[in-house]
User: Fold these one by one.
Assistant:
Number 1:
Amino acid sequence: MAPRSIPLCITLLLVALLAVPSVQAAPEAPEALQATAGNGYVDLSWLPVDGAERYLLYRGDMDGMAMIANLSAPFTAFHDAQVEEGESYLYYVTAVVGGEEGAPSNTVAVTVPEEERDFLLPVLALVISVIAIQVCVVMLLYQFKSNFRLK
């Protein structure tokens, strides 16, 4: 190789390296997805991903998953009130970095509790109300009888 061709080879090598699109690593998966269920809701939270522009939250069951929220970073929590009591759900979240959706987080399973129906308190209130009405009627009858005695 002639000394003049070395700069030409280096130039061609640099052009080739710059012309090849760089391969970016896929965004990280969000970590530590957690779910807490209450009567009619599920609260979800996860750790942030560096450089994330937004997060896509998915909900589903064993038959499939569907995206339910598109959250702008830095928000890393969601309150899902579109759930049914007594139903079980699966959730996962992905991060979007540079317009590319990353791998899914850990999947969490949660069952929304059914509202407890306490029948004792209403029944007890009804019984006490009936007793109170009976006591009032007896007191009124006694008062009425005392006022109208024959002399």
Number 2:
Amino acid sequence: MDTRGFYDGLADRYDLIYADWDASVTRQGRALDALLTAALGPGPHTVLDNACGIGTQSLGLSALGHKVTGTDLSPLAAARAAREAARRGPALPVAAADMRPCPSRTPPSTPWSAPTTRCPTC
């Protein structure tokens, strides 16, 4: 099984990895918000969650007012993140995207003030 297939298969139950997924969404959102504030000053910030999965960190950051876009290798996981966001409040734009290929060592100019992950070869 390839990586995408693995995460596609987990999308509907990935939250079960956590004892309390909702609490983890809140905890991880707060932790990342503190890091963003320390690095960039008070938000809200525009954030690219480049491996958003089902939205654990994206949802937490969105709940704190950040403008988050989520991408993930797994289209099923990204779609779950969008469904979870719709259920909770602010919409979460998502797309299926593979962050592994990187066209250059220079990160492109983007509208995001804070990507949560970097291309592994950049």
